[in-house]
Automatic annotation (TrEMBL):
Residues 7-190 form the Ketoreductase domain. One of its GO terms (biological process) is fatty acid elongation. The keyword Magnesium does not apply. Keywords: Oxidoreductase. This is 3-oxoacyl-ACP reductase FabG. It comes from Nonomuraea phyllanthi.
């Protein structure tokens, strides 16, 4: 039997990149998925490619807006009748050194990652705790473990996701809801393809496995944390980095 048969999952930022790969793996494992993304057309296109309305739906959602997250989770309940897995994946970067970063760049990144993940976690938890079952997977970053030059905003937000998730894991464990975190390293997506060549090469040099990761290699770890394979895990942080900065 597939690992997520009969389960409904919501994936934020699921129109492309890592979120899209997670949605794809989940559908392959029997889940019905609702993709929430800033870009409704891209989300629609992704849902169609994943198999159409019987298994995948799209909803416009800005994770920084609590009402949008309510509507996204409402779409999962209305369409598929449950909410079993929540993946808080939506993300942006606004890299700049401390000397040049604007307050707006700081606020934008903290808002999308930290407030967005908080919104997704608290809203999903409110539904899951009533049903005494659920798995929440939050996407942090290696940048939140070690701190990266040019990312005081992103590193702060991604480290914050770890603290948020551990606190939530403690609050929700006795309600049957697990909260775990993934810290990807260098994964080949639109976000990293925008990176200057020099920065890419520097990161590559730090990876013992000698290559960047592919989105599906994060997605299969999300599958593990979303499924009963990880039934005794909560508050854990799993690095998916090819051994980089272990
Ligand atoms: P992408 O830029 O490819 O995808 C991110 C998605 O999130 C986009 O579809 C984007 O929509 C969406 N999004 C952005 N802001 C919001 C918002 N406010 N509300 C809803 N959706 C939003 O990035 P990745 O797939 O690379 O990254 C996915 C996650 O993984 C992020 O949290 C990222 O920080 C994390 N990560 C990525 C790593 C990598 O190497 N790629 C490494 C470590 C962590 P739109 O395109 O319309 O803006």
């Amino acid at each position: 039997m597939a690992l997520l048969t009969g389960r409904t999952a919501v994936v934020t930022g699921g129109a492309q990149g890592i979120g899209r790969a997670i949605a794809e793996v989940f559908v392959r494992e029997g889940a019905r998925v609702v993709i929430g993304d800033l870009d409704p057309q891209a989300a629609e296109a992704a849902a169609k490619e994943l198999g159409g309305p019987s298994v995948a739906r799209a909803a416009a959602c800005d994770v920084t807006v609590a009402a949008d997250v309510d509507a996204l989770l409402g779409a999962a309940l209305d369409t598929f009748g449950s909410l079993d897995v929540m993946v808080n994946n939506a993300g942006i970067t606004r890299d700049a050194t401390l000397r040049t970063m604007t307050e707006e760049q700081f606020d934008q990144v903290v808002d999308v990652h930290l407030k967005g993940t908080w919104n997704g976690t608290r809203k999903a938890a409110a539904i899951m705790r009533e049903r005494k079952r659920g798995a929440i997977v939050n996407i942090s970053s290696l940048s939140g473990k070690v701190g990266m030059v040019g990312q005081t905003n992103y590193s702060a937000a991604k480290a914050g996701i770890v603290g948020l998730s551990k606190a939530a894991a403690k609050e929700l464990a006795h309600h049957g809801v697990r909260v775990n975190v993934i810290q990807p390293g260098l994964i080949r997506t639109a976000m990293t393809e925008a990176m200057p060549r020099k920065a890419w090469d520097q990161k590559m040099a730090e990876i013992p496995m000698g290559r960047a990761g592919e989105p599906h290699e994060v997605a299969t770890v999300a599958l593990f944390l979303a499924s009963e394979l990880s039934s005794y895990m909560t508050g854990a942080v799993l690095e998916v980095t090819g051994g980089r900065l272990m």
